[in-house]
Specification:
Blueprint (H helix, E strand, L loop, with lengths): L1 E4 L7 H15 L2 H6 L1 E9 L3 E4 L1 H11 L4 E12 L2 E10 L4 E10 L7 E11 L1
Parallel strand pairs: 1-4, 2-7
Antiparallel strand pairs: 2-3, 4-5, 5-6, 6-7
Length: 125
């Protein structure tokens, strides 16, 4: 998988964590993702569904892991306290392209576990 990071990570551990989180998502690294969330995770995929709890999160990851990501571009990663956002582009091996914007809430200001995610994804031609 090709990875392009346009986001300025600076010296922010939370930004580095979100870069790794997004890379794990693109690589289908379910173990890393499960170790990076709280047990009461809430994931809202706008226009699709809401996922509550670690078991539902894991099931959703397994469901979507059948597609291989060829390229991940992270354009922006913004963090402030317990809140964060990341946006970019995912290109699948079949050529489909998806622009995404994800909004995160961490369990605390350390930014080491994700408590909630709101995802916006659009198919780009």
């Amino acid at each position: 998988m090709k990875v392009h990071i346009h986001a300025d990570l600076g010296h922010s551990p939370s930004k580095v964590f979100l870069k790794e989180f997004n890379m794990a998502f693109a690589n289908g690294d379910i173990k890393f993702l499960l170790n990076s969330i709280t047990d009461d995770i809430s994931w809202t995929i706008i226009g699709d569904k809401k996922i509550d709890g670690k078991a539902e999160f894991e099931a959703a990851l397994k469901e979507i892991s059948n597609g291989k990501v060829a390229e991940l571009t992270l354009d922006k990663i913004i963090t402030h306290g317990r809140d964060a956002a990341a946006c970019g582009l995912i290109v699948m091996e079949n050529g489909r392209r998806y622009a995404f914007s994800d909004f995160y809430e961490f369990r605390n200001t350390n930014g080491d576990r994700v408590k909630s995610i709101i995802s916006h994804m659009t198919n780009v031609t």
